[in-house]
Amino acid sequence: MMTKAEIINQINDVTSSLIEVNLSEEQNFPAEKDGLIYISGNHDISISLRNISYADIYDILRDGKNYNVKLIDGALIQMMYSFDNEQNLKKYRLAFFPSPSLEEFQNNSELYEIDEIYADIVHKNIITTPLRFDFDPSNHEVIHHPSSHLTIGQYKNCRIPLHKPITPYIFIDFILRNFYNTARNKFSEKLSFDKTNNFDYCINDLEREILHLSIS
């Protein structure tokens, strides 16, 4: 079982590693109190669940520095866990909020056009889609609300089951591998985070029978 201390160390390591490879523009290292691992400062994450436009959600999170890491393309990363003791995970929230605006590209297009990492975000057919991994067994409902799940976009009832909770390393590897690897610069290989996952399985047998995500 992953401990609270191990999770804090992983978040710190992820943050430092993103700085080292120049993917982080701004960052807030994690804080911990009473079993809660949260973003430094007193940040309210409820804004991301309100019925307002995604652009407004993003702006409020960005302006309030409500993120662990702000990536160089403006995307925001949130990593928050809650334990009721050193080893008993209660819940977590791991979120990826890509920038909904290409204003920076419009103002400094020459910087983006020479860098392969920005090739996707400047294409007009790209749709900005936030992702969120949640672990919340206290609200588990078979199939309708899996204990561990992925939400794509802000869709209220989009909850794709996961076999088990995931670590910060696995989360960041997923983001880098799918959104930031380029033909010449594979960040997921350069950083090579340990994807060992000692959390217990939590998927229900009925949830195994529908499309779901799995990692050993």
What can you see in these coordinates?
By secondary structure, this protein is an alpha+beta fold. It has one domain (4-208). The chain contains 7 helices and 9 strands; from the N terminus they run αβββαβββααβββααα. Strand 8 (148-152) and strand 9 form a beta hairpin. Strands 1, 2, 3, 4, 5, 6, 7, 8 and 9 form a 9-stranded antiparallel sheet that branches. It has helices at 4-20, 54-63, 103-107, 109-113, 168-179, 187-191, 205-208; strands at residues 24-27, 30-33, 36-39, 69-71, 76-83, 89-97, 131-135, 148-152, 160-161. The protein is 27% helix and 20% strand.
Distance between the termini: 13 Å
- Number of helical stretches of at least 4 residues: 7
Q: What string, H for helix and E for strand, traces the elements in order? A: HEEEHEEEHHEEEHHH
From the spread of the alpha carbons, the general shape counts as globular
Helix content: 25-40%
Number of domains: 1
- What does the main sheet amount to? 9 strands, antiparallel
Structural class: alpha+beta
| Overall mean confidence score, pLDDT | 87
Instruction: Give Rg in angstroms.
Output: 17 Å
Task: Give start-end ranges of low-pLDDT stretches.
Answer: none
> In what range is the share of β-strand residues?
15-25%
For the secondary structure, the number of strands is 9
Pfam family, one: DUF2290
InterPro entries: DUF2290 (IPR018742)
